[in-house]
Structure prediction request, 499 residues.
Amino acid sequence: MRYAWGVVASFGLLLTGCMVGPDYIIPAVPVTPKFKEARTPADPKTAGIWIRATPSDALARGKWWEVFGDPELNRLEAQLGDANQSLKEAEARFAQSRALIRVARAAEFPSVSAGSSAAYIRESAHQPYVTFPNPPALGDFQMPVDLNYEIDFWGSVHRSVEAAREEAQATAADLSTASLSLHAELALDYIALRAQDAQQRLLDETVKAYAHALQLTTNRHVGGLAPESDVEQAQTQLATTKVQDTDVGVARAQYEHAIAVLIGEPPAALTIPAASFGQLKPRLIPAVLPSELLQRRPDIAAAERRVAEANQQIGIADAAFYPNVNLAALAGFQGTTPANWFLWPSLLWSVGTTLSQPIFDGGAIRAQSDAVRAAYAGDVATYRQTTLSAFQDVEDNLSALRILGKEAKQQRDAVIAANRALDTFTKAYTGGEVAYLQVITAQTAALSNEVNQVDIERRRLEANVRLVKALGGGWDTGLLPVLASSGLPRGAFVPVGQQ
Prediction:
């Protein structure tokens, strides 16, 4: 009895095995205490910047575009989630990665197969070294059940399952990255479309003003107060502006078509009515610490999960240096006729194990181990570069908002001054004090400044979108799917200098 229990205990230990390969620790990345550009609104150098420290949940999870308060944008963004084909492709990749977890887990269990065969066999009468003048025909009826089980003694199968789980989490983060990018692209296209609407209204009004100026000049010419060249200059200015006014429609149509494709509709099926540019007013968005960005960016999460996956591949490669243990069993019936096929004497069975150990393979196992370690180092570099790029994205857009905020104020002053100068020169021309060329110059300067004012506002709104995207759009690592863990250490973020 003691011997039997000893066999059971030994077999259990054999099945449990041990884990080879390194435990996973998330690689350290260079993190600063705060962003260079993330100053408070009270800072006199950056007064008016809308970044604030609280509340921490001001970005709605998922529907971050609602911070702009535009119902039409909200409607379009909602359609994107339902119909965008690129997003559906990313969803399919995630579903595939989850299915591959089940594929990997199948190796944790024995494989059992069954079959049957029935044949009559007649031996050859001319076999080498033996002569059978009249060889008999014998029946061979078999129904075996085979069991085969590779004992995961070194943790190779276990780590394969973990690698599949980590790839599934990385693919889930890829899906979130794709969703964030597509929603941001739609918002950017929508802002650009509304900027074209603003340009259209500005040029429409300018065409009317230039038509009035042409009429004024024509009247002065008829009255002998202005030369014909003034009329020709006014006609040229009006015609040129009409061309600009018409040309706006090209870019607007292209943005509208791009939005249609993003929401999964043919361009001919979507018409977005013109609307005011000023209705896009982002609310305050919370600033985050650089360390928090590691938890908020899905692309960072995907890169980190692939480092974890690469770490598992090292363990799988290391297991190849050790013996492979396989358990096999067979049981069934074999008879010579259907009548005795399933009789007790026809029972057959076998149980055994095989152990194989690589002795010489020309360095293939060592080369594979070196390859996966190099792949791990590459994934670590990708993770760190992704993190650095994320920090750059935040800094770029914070600085853009700060600088563009100052520039917008300067541009408003320039518009006021240009319009005042135009009014002055127009009155002076009407009184015969200046040449019409000065009016043309003032008109050009005023229009140029007003067009630039619209463009700066567009760039400010786009920087808002890009900042929201750079901050992860309300996403965090808690949104990664929880996949049943097999108990391997998951690791923890390690600050620089504490590795």
Remarks:
- The first helix runs from residue 2 to 16.
- Residues 19-116+143-479 form a domain with the Outer membrane efflux proteins (OEP) fold (CATH 1.20.1600.10).
